[in-house]
Amino acid sequence: MVSSSFPTNLQDWKGRFIYNLAEALARQPDLALRLWAPPGNLPAHINTAATSSELKWIHEMTENGGIAHLLRKHPIQGLWWATGLLWRLHQTFRREQQSDIIHVNWLQNALPLLGTKTPLVISVLGSDMTMLQLPGVKALLRRVFQQRKTIITPNADWMITPIKKMFGDLADIQFVSFGVDQIWFDIIRTPVQPSLWITVTRITQKKIGTLFEWGEGLFDDNRQLHLFGPMQETLPLPPWVIYHGPTHPLDLAQNWFPKATGLLTLSQHDEGCPQVMLEAMAAGLPIIASDLPAHRDLILHQQTGCLARTKDETAVALEWLEQSEPNQIVGATAKALIKKTVGTWDDCAARYHSLYRRILDQ
Prior knowledge:
The chain has 362 residues and is α/β, with parallel strands linked by helices. It has helices spanning 16-26, 52-63, 67-73, 75-95, 126-131, 137-146, 160-167, 182-185, 205-208, 211-215, 249-256, 275-282, 293-298, 311-321, 324-341, 345-361; strands at residues 33-35, 46-48, 102-105, 120-124, 150-154, 172-173, 195-200, 223-228, 241-243, 262-265, 287-290, 306-308.
């Protein structure tokens, strides 16, 4: 398995879903996993596929913000890092040709597979859809897929149609949702007064979206907004925002989600299937979200949350979900939906395990 993001420790927010997925895969029967990723505490029964020099290099890359951040904010420097990543993956894939399957997270990490034939499973995330618009990327990926059996697994339903148009003649396209840790399902909520709303996001202009604009006048001491996440772009924070800096899942699960009124995300970013929304819904936490394809995949309006297209719609949703009965009903409906359609990380690993079997049978 290949990933360009991985948490350095249990408190790190970066690449947490990769740790959870790898840990669950390692619990699957008859599966031995080698992971090529930034250095961190590997789950039990997983070996690293990276050399010591590769670990040192990729750690430095992630400390500088990661490939997506570098390409977005420092294009020339980002291109240098991207070239270095692809070259190291090229060397890795040739070392690992005895593997039965290569599982790649993020489409760009599959480009260095050119010239090999190992069967391929790819987890596609929201940021991949932007990367596919770059000149030449689709053509290179098609060459990669032509050389092997390939299954492409978007983690959000809305991505299936465009990916089928691009690659459906060369690869199987199979939606596979990520999982949720059991700790989220175990949360029992007791919302506090004054109402307490939470936003968990990397702080960039697109991730914040319309939050600061629409939130003006809607939040004060009697309706609080608590913001969690790393400051990746320098944005001025309004005085009514209570900023806590980066966080980690255990802090949210133990100290914030149980007493929160709901989760608020007004992102305009290219989202796939936001993990924090899955976790909030699993905890029974109502969500107010911007009207993006990724959010429409999860939110049934006024059933598992609310979709907001204007400031007025945001205000109406806040007032409605601050009432005890709608809050509890929407939260319980969201929890039931995630239990049924997403499940735990072990459920996710089992879905991938069946795809590994399918591709080997082929």
